[in-house]
Amino acid sequence: MPSKAVVLLSGGLDSATTLAIARKEGFEIHPLSFRYGQRHERELAAAERIARAFGAAERHLIIAFDLRAIGGSALTDAIDVPKSRSAGEIANGIPVTYVPARNTIFLSFGLALAEKMDSSDIFIGANQLDYSGYPDCREEYMRAFESMANLATKAGVEGRTKIKIHTPLIRMTKAEIIRKGVELGVDYSLTWSCYDPTAAGLACGRCDSCQLRLKGFKEAGMEDPLRYA
User: Fold this and answer.
1) Which one in 23, 85, 97, 108 has a CA-CA gap of 20 to 30 Å to 79?
2) Where are the domains of the chain?
3) What pTM was estimated for this model as a whole?
4) Residue ranges in the chain assigned as alpha helix (H)
5) 3.40.109.30, 3.30.360.10, 3.40.50.12780, 3.40.50.620: CATH of 4-192
6) How confident is the model at residue 103 (pLDDT cuts 50, 70, 90)?
7) Given this model, what pLDDT does residue 130 score?
8) What is the greatest pairwise CA distance in the chain?
9) CA dihedral 22, 24, 27, 30 (to 10 degrees)
């Protein structure tokens, strides 16, 4: 019987590729998504499509809570999403699309689910090369959370499990991630990356996330299947 793994699934390109990697490694995948008060529901619809495509729809858990009560991010507050920033601007500093402590919150839910399932494995599509400078996407943060997880759980203290935070994309470029996903059969038309879609439901093409995605497909020598404004 395969080992179970919790896979954080946002509905984006990175998380879909991570889900495919976890399945390729032989895990029974348990996708975990969040309705946290984000600007739009497009990414959750994408997460549901991806879970279905990987035969994990019945195991897909969506947890709802509202980070709009805290705010402080363009994704959860009345703050404009930055558009048309240069590659240099994207690569420097922490943008207003950073949601305070989001990955810590998400991983904590993932940890609770993993402990409940007697699972030792949590996958997250964090990346520290082609990304928007979020501090909770760095490798040192992931290792620190892993250490904390093994101190903070009943299963860890009793020695029944040793939690591992899997970050298979952490040192990959966006182009490398896309090539890996295509190799594993990921249908990227099911995914969603845009922070600020148009009223017609098209990706804006100008937010940081869209620009990084488009750059990745271009460098991979492939065409992005999403429709852009």
Assistant:
1) 108
2) 4-192
3) 0.96
4) 13-24, 42-53, 87-91, 102-116, 139-152, 154-157, 174-183, 208-220
5) 3.40.50.620
6) very high
7) 65
8) 53
9) 50
